[in-house]
């Protein structure tokens, strides 16, 4: 079945105004007028389901770095969807943004390892932000959203 509109799913754990800023920048990039034919659906990581992933043509994941890992909420998302999605969502384009106080390395490694296990295809380098997000960080988040949208656009 062909569809004129592709769906970009943003699964995020947004726990503070800083993370909200990053999320909004990603969403603004994903919904830019420069890209046509893409609708954006957002889901809190604790509410997202395997069906949300099945229905997505691309996915963006957002998390704080917590104790050297992704947030428990995003881990819960992966625990929920991993086996249902394992055969169904291979090659799904994905990208990741992470915010931390000082070190996002473990969170990035953890997400990339699971996404690799799922066979998802990274389409943009992770946007990693530490401390208060400056203009460059917010632009990187915008770019991340726009890049995934452009990747799955049918136009
Ligand atoms: C329990 C806990 C563990 C955390 N662990 C890390 C960590 O390992 N690396 C890091 O860079 N930031 C860590 N942080 C900071 C969070 O990533 C940060 O609070 C979150 O991204 C929101 O940013 P904000 O507090 O500036 O709003 C931790 C925060 C909490 C509450």
UniProtKB/TrEMBL annotation:
InterPro entries: Flavoprotein-like_sf, FMN_Rdtase-like_dom
Signal peptide annotation: none
GO molecular function: oxidoreductase activity
One Pfam family hit: FMN_red
All residue ranges annotated as the NADPH-dependent FMN reductase-like domain in the record: 41-115
Protein name (record): Flavodoxin
Organism of derivation: Nonomuraea cavernae
């Amino acid at each position: 079945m062909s569809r004129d509109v592709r769906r970009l799913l943003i699964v995020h754990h947004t726990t503070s105004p800083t993370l909200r800023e990053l999320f909004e920048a990603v969403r603004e990039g994903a919904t830019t007028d420069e890209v046509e034919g893409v609708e954006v659906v957002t889901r809190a990581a604790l509410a997202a389901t395997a069906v949300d992933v099945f229905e997505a043509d691309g996915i963006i994941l957002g998390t704080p770095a917590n104790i050297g890992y992704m947030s428990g909420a995003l881990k819960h998302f992966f625990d929920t969807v991993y086996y249902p999605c394992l055969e169904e969502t291979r090659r799904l384009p994905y990208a990741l943004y992470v915010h931390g106080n000082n070190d996002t390395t473990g969170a990035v490694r953890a997400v990339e390892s699971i996404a690799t296990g799922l066979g998802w295809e990274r389409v943009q380098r992770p946007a990693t932000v530490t401390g208060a997000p400056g203009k460059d960080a917010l632009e990187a988040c915008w770019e991340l959203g726009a890049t995934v949208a452009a990747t799955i656009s049918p136009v």
